[in-house]
Amino acid sequence: MKNSIIAIIFSLALFAVLVFPIRSAIVDDTYIHLQYARNLAALHELSFNQGEPSYGATSPLWVFVLSIVSLAGGNLMLWSKLLSVGFAVLTILLVYFVADELTRSRFIAFLAAIVMASEAWFVRWSAVGMETAFSAFMVLIVFFVFFRRFESRGFGVLLAVVFLLSTLSRPEVLLLFPLAVFTEAHVYRSIRSTAKWSMLFVIFFILWLLVIHHHTGSYFPLTAGAKQGRFALAGIVARSLVPIKILGATLLLPWLAVISSIVLGILRGDWSLVLRSALPESLRDERRMKAFVELAVLWIFSLPVVYVVMDFQLLSRYLVPTIPLVVLLGVFGFFGLARLLSGRRSSQRIIAGILVLLTIVQSVVFFKTVVVKPTLELTDGINKVLVPFGRWIDKNTNREAVIAAPDIGAIGYFSHRRILDLGGLVSREINTIRRRVDYETILDKGLYLRFNPDFLVDRSPKPERFADKKIGSSRFTPIL
């Protein structure tokens, strides 16, 4: 117990040291969630613009949590950041607990926890008050319940519930459901048992779809249409490099360990054999161990592939829900490969420890040299440009004014005006147009003007590019 406490304290201390320099970090999307939470608490509707319910919040569960804060009179910005960091801490603790549960080794659990605590993208997105760490935590909860499912009949119902909640934390987690159904049916050969909990989830999810469609007119978040491009086979190779660069920048060795372990396992007749060799010999061939490893491998490879195939505008935070599983499998792979190199337990620990140390160094160096400065610069830009814009609009425009803007979070939150979202995240009309043409075309041709905005916030690097320009019956006059 004492060693576990020391390991946990060390891991959390490392996370705290890394997150502290970017503790003030914010992104514009944070304000989108805050706006939705404020309206949900005050008006009992899921909306960005008051009186216009819309499914523009990627994480309705996160909005619901923040709305409770708003109802209690809490500072939304402060609590969004505290909760985000809090779920990051819980994720690190859960990585330790899951690794210990699987391997019965506190040393392996410690290595997994410190790799998780030092992962640059995880740290970066845990600081900004968004749902990213929360969704990573929920995904890990799904894996934990999936692992324990056959211990009690009640775990089947629990699995259906946590699947629904995790899907409401990030819509991409829905992909995990068919993967889990396939894995359980494949490993356990228990079609009837699998059908029970999976049908329960389907019922829960259909009920949610009916409720959210009735309320907003949409079945899925509008972000799907706004962030998704057009399928082009010729661009798949180039798009594939994006997730490789993102995850390779911080977790290169764990990924190489996973891939190498799978290849060596295939050569030995069982693709997951090397990954499972980090587990206790008495547990290595248990079906639940095989199921956990199989589902984890499917998850970490499938999500990036789906993003690439569907041509999503991929950001690093979209891959964070895979990171806890990449870390766990990577550390398992380190030990599996070390076991192939040496039969001595002490040597295996040294080899795995060195690989973990190199992983931490890579991630921390990347964080310090690549992540921190742009993160703080973005925060500074939001605080010095978008927030003042929002406050200026609040003080100097009619209460009925409509503001067309591509970055809507801070402007909408501080202006208290109706926003026409040129990105299509919360405005269904623009979302429909975005599926046909890009943002610049919408602006240049004035396709948004049919919705009668009074003001345009333009983020072009060219100052006043629309000054005195006339599009249709609208003439532009610069104000700021």
Structure description:
It is built from 19 helices and five strands. The chain has helices spanning 2-19, 28-43, 60-71, 76-103, 106-118, 120-126, 132-147, 154-169, 176-188, 191-216, 223-227, 236-267, 273-276, 287-309, 323-341, 345-396, 409-415, 428-434, 439-444, and strands at 402-405, 418-421, 455-456, 470-471, 474-475. It has a three-stranded parallel beta sheet, with no helix packed on it. Strands 4-5 form a two-stranded antiparallel ribbon. The longest helix has 52 residues, at 345-396. The model has no long low-confidence stretch (mean pLDDT 93).
Uncertain stretches of 5 or more adjacent residues: none
Total number of distinct structural domains: 2
- Largest sheet properties: 3 strands, parallel
Give the helix/strand class: mainly alpha
Shape: globular
Summarize the helix and strand pattern as letters: HHHHHHHHHHHHHHHHEHEHHEEE
> Mean of the pLDDT scores?
93
Q: What percent strand? A: under 5%
The value of Rg in angstroms is 24 Å
Number of helices: 19
What's the number of extended β-strand segments?
5
Strand order of the largest sheet: 2-1-3
- Helical percent range? 55-70%
* Distance N to C terminus: 61 Å
SSE order and pairing:
Elements: H1 2-19, H2 28-43, H3 60-71, H4 76-103, H5 106-118, H6 120-126, H7 132-147, H8 154-169, H9 176-188, H10 191-216, H11 223-227, H12 236-267, H13 273-276, H14 287-309, H15 323-341, H16 345-396, E1 402-405, H17 409-415, E2 418-421, H18 428-434, H19 439-444, E3 455-456, E4 470-471, E5 474-475
Parallel strand pairs: 1-2, 1-3
Antiparallel strand pairs: 4-5
Helix pairs in contact: 1-4, 1-5, 2-3, 2-17, 4-5, 4-7, 5-15, 5-16, 7-8, 8-10, 9-10, 9-14, 12-14, 12-15, 12-16, 14-15, 15-16, 16-17
